[in-house]
Amino acid sequence: MDKEKIRDLILQMTLEEKAGMCSGADFWHTKAAERLGIPSVMVSDGPHGLRKQSEAADHLGINDSIKAVCFPAGCALASSFDRDLAKKMGETIGQECQAEDISTILGPAVNIKRSPLCGRNFEYYSEDPYAASEMSAAFIRGVQSKNVGTSVKHFLANNQEKRRMTNSSDVDERTLREIYMVPFEGAVKNGKPWTVMNSYNQINGTFVGESKEYLTDLLRAEWGFDGYVMSDWGAVNDRVEALKAGMDLEMPSSNGVNDALIVKAVQDGTLDEAVVDQACERILNIIYRYMESRDASAVFDREKDHGTAASVEEECIVLLKNDSDGNGKPILPLGREQKIAFIGKYAQAPRYQGGGSSHINSWKVESALEAVKDFADVAYAKGFDDAQDQADEALEAEAVQAAEDADAAVIFAGLPDSFESEGYDRTHLNLPECQNRLISKICDVQKNVVVVLHNGSPVVMPWKDRVSAIVEAYLGGQAVGKAEVRVLFGEVNPSGRLSETFPNRLEDTPCYLTYGKGRDHAEYREGVFVGYRYYTTRDMDVQYPFGYGLSYTTFGYSDLATDKSGLTDADTLSVSVDVKNTGDRSGKEVVQLYVAPVNSEVPRPLRELKGFEKVSLEPGEKKTVAFTLDDRAFAVWNADLHCWDVPDGAYKIQICRNAREVILETEVQVKNTKRPRQKYTANTCMGELFADPKAQQILGQMMGNNEQAKEMEEKSQGEAVSQEMLAAMMQDMPLRQLISFVPGMTWEAVDQILNALNA
């Protein structure tokens, strides 16, 4: 329906009907206006599968929803580093939404993984804003290609579960812009989501849902968002102020309480009715966008989609370790002829999704123990029951014996539901102690030990150096067992890469001193140094770095090239590199491009991810991978000028195996041409002036004409004052101090210099 028809509908609505349109009819539906033929549409949780509830609806996943297909969670999907895969998964979920008459899926969740303790990290994509931005935009494009909306969440700076409904995230402007806004900016600009969900929390003392700065000035005016903003469920503090700020739809229903406040505010003149009209127009535009593209013939093919879930997870699994046996052969992949023991509760009943609002009522679950029947005969021992995290000596003894009798033992370990979920944050990075104990005991009797992990966020591995191989499956969806077995036996070559750092210990994490501390305020004192930006800049050892992952084959890089060695911030830089499969089996490599400033006056991370591509290569095959970098690849946020700003200087273009391992690099010079000209004052330091060619010329002329200044400089070349000392002192000397140190200099002369500089 075009805008004129929608506006005509709004003109026919009563004030009460318009106020009602701005809140849900119930937990999952928008309100209908039957008198005008306006339909009600349904929204549903599920960035990794549908959680469509009909009766006894709730937001935390307590009550059952329809049988659906659970796909890999965000923590896994991001580790694929594959935009096409994210788009494919989105297309599949979009098709399911059409079949179930769901207008909008509530996701993706793109908040930054500030700390590995965040209880909801399993839903989130990455600690890196560029990776989260690119993967989420691809997912959005996939869903919306089926004419179903997405709702990017949780906007903004929602990085902990503790007091998430009232807490204030206290973040400086630069950090917000460079880290926490970027995934949303990329999702909005490149994915064009139909809706955005604002978060519960405050930022610097103001609820996001009441912030015109974020919901209108930034989201709409600057980024071009043209859909409607909905609240997170119950994230309304002051309904009238939220409406003024740009929060259009309150979810769920307030049973008319807040609708009445909107009506009253219009009637007493504290709210312009045009604001209500605008919110209704945005909501109706999305409702009719869906209704007019409704595909009543769409089918939810659960069996087919289960297969898709398996193929997606195959691309997400990360091989963290793969040592060789005594004969020089890597432990993985396993051989079908080997005598193998599968050990651990999660081999039979995998943990494959997180708890809370995204919990899927899975149509079926395919475990590794079930899937392995098509590959080999394996012995199985449960080994542990981590519900109470207490060792069971009988289960342990059975598992140890099975491992001792086998050629190789595969232990399926991970975090139980009680360790990570929406609603609360973790307090440590440990696996259940009963699991660590079992792994240690099995290592005592078996040298070929493989650990497969089921977890939504990093864990510490005290047994890391004792086991032969580690496979990170994350929360891989209902077909995780099939994907795991295909990787373990080499039917699939693992190609996932970590989208977050696995630290050595909790105390090493960037926000350790402040995360989860305090009652009403979360202080983001680490600034832009989040995740690998912190570890690499401090040269800190970690268990596994961001971008890390092994393969059953090997890859070589060569011929890194740029189309220019010098550029301005108005130019783009083309980068290419050749990558070759130097091993003996086909595989996929994630080519990672980082930008590293050589010398920066601004505190900056050592390097930052600015490009990635996943390429498939046959043995011996070589491909050229190309990237295009614009000014944002080199920019920082200038909080004084409130704009993106590219510092002049040299930058290294680095092709890396991961955030710590540089393979190839080259250097380019970048010059700023866009920065608004600085206004110089008497307190501007000489070093800043010397860095400005115009200022350098003016100062040189004026100082060169000052005979007393030249005489003073000549006399200073003695033992007490060296040339180096004089240069260092001048660097940080404000212009006004020339009066004290340059004979004959006056305030009138300083004013003349400033007038010339600022002309």
UniProtKB/TrEMBL annotation:
<dbReference type="InterPro" id="IPR001764">
    <property type="entry name" value="Glyco_hydro_3_N"/>
</dbReference>
<dbReference type="InterPro" id="IPR017853">
    <property type="entry name" value="GH"/>
</dbReference>
<dbReference type="InterPro" id="IPR002772">
    <property type="entry name" value="Glyco_hydro_3_C"/>
</dbReference>
<feature type="domain" description="Fibronectin type III-like">
    <location>
        <begin position="589"/>
        <end position="659"/>
    </location>
</feature>
<protein>
    <submittedName>
        <fullName>Glycosyl hydrolase</fullName>
    </submittedName>
</protein>
<dbReference type="InterPro" id="IPR050288">
    <property type="entry name" value="Cellulose_deg_GH3"/>
</dbReference>
<keyword id="KW-0378">Hydrolase</keyword>
<dbReference type="InterPro" id="IPR026891">
    <property type="entry name" value="Fn3-like"/>
</dbReference>
<dbReference type="InterPro" id="IPR036962">
    <property type="entry name" value="Glyco_hydro_3_N_sf"/>
</dbReference>
<dbReference type="GO" id="GO:0005975">
    <property type="term" value="P:carbohydrate metabolic process"/>
</dbReference>
<dbReference type="Pfam" id="PF00933">
    <property type="entry name" value="Glyco_hydro_3"/>
</dbReference>
<dbReference type="Pfam" id="PF14310">
    <property type="entry name" value="Fn3-like"/>
</dbReference>
<dbReference type="GO" id="GO:0008422">
    <property type="term" value="F:beta-glucosidase activity"/>
</dbReference>
<dbReference type="Pfam" id="PF01915">
    <property type="entry name" value="Glyco_hydro_3_C"/>
</dbReference>
<dbReference type="InterPro" id="IPR036881">
    <property type="entry name" value="Glyco_hydro_3_C_sf"/>
</dbReference>
<comment type="similarity">
    <text>Belongs to the glycosyl hydrolase 3 family.</text>
</comment>
<dbReference type="InterPro" id="IPR013783">
    <property type="entry name" value="Ig-like_fold"/>
</dbReference>
